[in-house]
């Protein structure tokens, strides 16, 4: 009883700074968030400075408005003294059978164009045959699991020497990763960003510039293969309403040909297998 009594006052001090941190990450003022949450700015201020303790429902409401990832919503709940709400299953868990089937359907339907599924840290989970064909041009030493697709793209011993617009692609990937770090506060993503930012440019690499006008409407991934050159662009697909942490952190990146020559080459590669 004494331990419980002394622990309770510490809880608001733990949850308050976390709420404030997420609000600031989303670049919301207290007034902005209070209006969205339909509470007073005074009440929100009390929650953030520890003078009031949020209810479980209020905490989940604020987290939803701030689009806090499910993993971090669990952390907020624990910090406020509640049990975590969202489960985390392995991708091969029987309860995720339908989700896995949906991913496999999307991957197969995207042939002969490459597509792959990654987790929140950009580690490869699965890929279709077209993506595997592109990876097969790399030495086996570059494909040792766990395979991080961002690291593989920029590693001088990986795919980087094959990327024709490496400077532009490097800038694009690092900018994307930087936004993820800011949005999530994920320490492992931050470490990955620091690692990839330290990679030196390759000889002859042209460093991209944000001020350089582009003829393309998207940043293209231009790849040199033994069979020819590819120009690709990509889209990202995520599960819309997940309640499982694993599903919420998966993303399917699908690549499309940017010109008829690239489409024809991808089809020839598929026909040759």
From TrEMBL:
It comes from the Bacteria. This is Helix-turn-helix transcriptional regulator. Residues 19-73 form the HTH cro/C1-type domain. Transmembrane segments: none annotated. InterPro entries: Cro/C1-type_HTH (IPR001387), Lambda_DNA-bd_dom_sf (IPR010982), MLTR_LBD (IPR041413). It comes from Pseudomarimonas arenosa. GO terms for molecular function: DNA binding. It holds the Pfam family MLTR_LBD.
